[in-house]
Amino acid sequence: MRQYEMFEISLTGEISEDNQAEVTAVISFEGKEKQIKGFYAGNGVYKVRFLPESAGLYRWKVNGAVSGEGEAVCVEAKAGEHGLVKPVGTHFIYEDGTRYIPVGTTVYALLHQEKELREQTMQTLQTAPFNKIRFCVFPKHFDFNSNEPEMLPFQITDGRPDPAKPCYEFWDRMEEYISRLHAIGIQADLILFHPYDHWGFARWSRQECLTYLTYAVRRLSAYPNIWWSLANEYDAITEFKHEWWAEFAALIRKEESCRHNLSNHNLLWKWDFANPDTTHVCLQSSAFEEVPELMEYGKPILFDECGYEGDIPYPWGNLSGFELVNRFWKAAVMGAYCTHGETFWNPEEILWWSKGGTFKGESVPRIAFLKEVLESLPGDLTYEVSDAERAYFEKGREGLKELAGTGGFPAAFVDYPNELLPLLIRTMTEMRSSFRDEVILIYNARQCRSFLEVELPAAGHYTIEILDVWDMTRKVQMTGACGKVRVEMPGKEGIAMLALKEH
Amino acid sequence: MRQYEMFEISLTGEISEDNQAEVTAVISFEGKEKQIKGFYAGNGVYKVRFLPESAGLYRWKVNGAVSGEGEAVCVEAKAGEHGLVKPVGTHFIYEDGTRYIPVGTTVYALLHQEKELREQTMQTLQTAPFNKIRFCVFPKHFDFNSNEPEMLPFQITDGRPDPAKPCYEFWDRMEEYISRLHAIGIQADLILFHPYDHWGFARWSRQECLTYLTYAVRRLSAYPNIWWSLANEYDAITEFKHEWWAEFAALIRKEESCRHNLSNHNLLWKWDFANPDTTHVCLQSSAFEEVPELMEYGKPILFDECGYEGDIPYPWGNLSGFELVNRFWKAAVMGAYCTHGETFWNPEEILWWSKGGTFKGESVPRIAFLKEVLESLPGDLTYEVSDAERAYFEKGREGLKELAGTGGFPAAFVDYPNELLPLLIRTMTEMRSSFRDEVILIYNARQCRSFLEVELPAAGHYTIEILDVWDMTRKVQMTGACGKVRVEMPGKEGIAMLALKEH
User: Which part of the chain is the DUF5060 domain (chains A, B) (predicted)?
Assistant: First the structure.
């Protein structure tokens, strides 16, 4: 047994017709007891899994469909094992304190492709910058996704998938990939439901959903790299009642052996991120200017679907490489995160976004560059609220009037409609974030500035770098800068400025 | 006297202290009489001007501060003289029936620069694609605009510009440029007020404004190429009451010798384009998706300030050349029009947008290409309302529900908030416009499509061209296309498709 690695108790018992047998383990560690539910893994095998988060002596006792007991010494984590990724404010950190900067990609139907393609995908991921991947339990039926999978997660009974009858082979495969993703440092952002269905998963009753979730969570929650994504486009699953989703989240919290990240992905209607079981904001959106309002949830903000680099007819699937990179940087400078995906059409209909394979676009190395830049900083960036925004947040229109009185805000803008004011205020200044007084990042996006007056914290001296997000260059522009400085810029799209405090 | 050319009656009388002397001419033509007001031109000279819109015998009789009478035969228009530009529906046409496709630029303080620079600007315009220019009567005080003009339109009395005391030399200069612009086919979109002021023009009383407008309109309205732009950023002139603007428009209609195009340019609050004296929609905006709603005014739509190609810090002044060209095409495919401007910083602070000079950007030849493409078409383009938009316009949400029932609209989208539905609907389909069943234009903007299914009118056969708006190429892709066709596209930004009916 090793800290941060799944520990599995496997016991043999009766062959079961379905997965409804109850198995419970009581785990004792340092005088505390924890109850964990097991699951039926097929072939008369029952398993209970848990993730030891600390080193030491663990005792376990299993009861139910099978029984047994034992103990094991859990040794300190292996180098490179960091434990679960947990939210801290609007950012993430591994359990052992290591920074985790989410840089995700998307291969929705990863598990439902043929072996050769799955292996190619894993090979591609091996050298890619991504440390999170969104993929689905269920197969996908959609444009460019008409290939029937070799097997389904559940058996079809009377033309309907039966959540009490898993295809154990599928679940074994899923676990294999979750483990292999973990081995290459990738969080498995597992999508539990989605609307692109013709098998019946998106038409399950509430009870069928709960049966499925109970099984999935008992089985998978001891994998350290699991994240729960309740759905992709939850609001497009028209057969599910809205109140089910919070119930699903609560069930997951009850059944999981340790608390994983959890959120829900929308088509049109954002999920309620105030939901206490929800750990982060997950969005289909490229409205990065809404980040300051979203920050009020106090949770990390992931634009998990901000559009895909590609060339298909749909507007969500034909961004230029530059535009996707631009969106990653826009999110980054707001203190948020984007997720990658690729939708290049080809006669084989192997589009990375659903099926994996290889990258055909130009964004991936640039996303790697962004990741390197963020990793090189001493801490995570947070959006800097401007004076006008602060005035507006704190005192509404009156605050802006006061600021206008001192020349800090244009008087003509004060009477703008309330709901549009925050965005108006935001577009008036550059996008800027910081980490304490150590780092200031400004990102010009598509604005081709040839210079910018930048206000630095008065106390320190700063080295100013100009970054070209497409050419992937960092160039020192000034050293010893302090106070208000004019920074020369190359007057093209995709330029960022980093000010780093000198020590 | 020649049709479509200004006819001027010039009489000498008393030297006047101010411009308040009244002169009235009665013009008789084919049994009809028209009263036209004259103005004092300085040095004891009084003038009455009018624009003969038809050939024939004109008689005139002047009374007031000076008097006189006479007659003249007006001969048919010279080749190349087309008369006034008038709105017809959402497009324009010259008085003689020639198409006018507005392709404007902006040199706000054209008249207030030194002669050498003014001449350079005129030389640049000579070979440029522009057929409209926005410029101000008053000088401009703003960033990059700190040079005091040689002279002001009005004398300063007690530290305040006096609208009764013109600097006649300035008005002569203005007229010289209006004439010279006309000679090279450029409409003079004259901005009558603006907020970038430190002389006092933007702090005039209502009565002072009326005095000024009366003089300007009596003096300038016989120039065939004059358009009246009540203001630039009218809503930023905080000293003027909102109700003044409609009064100014009405005064212009009363005083002008023939009806010119008239509109008003906003900062934040769009002008009321339903105003009966307003001939077209004039916007500071790049929200081209709002065109279908704006079309309900039944007037041409000009995005007179959609951002400038340049590199200054402000977001409105640092578009890439591509982005400005992209905006021109987005407007074009919505059946609307953009206006050009350039804001490249240089140590001399000569930015085209305010001062003229030469072009430093890359958009101008591409704008010329767009103009050529539009001129090559048999008629003006009008935005094609999609089935979903029509359903929504006609029956609101119920219409969408019906359409969703037949599979023509995603059911999940029906309940989206009312105010956001039109935009949502619009982003779901390609931007497409047409001229009868003769021409269909689709513009992909930044969407990098590698193909698109296009529905052509069933009756005809079409030649399909692919246009690269940046590389300025037109390439025939298919001939004899009809019905639903798959059109291959180069999968990059800035691609348009033209379908031209074969005859």
Answer: 2-63
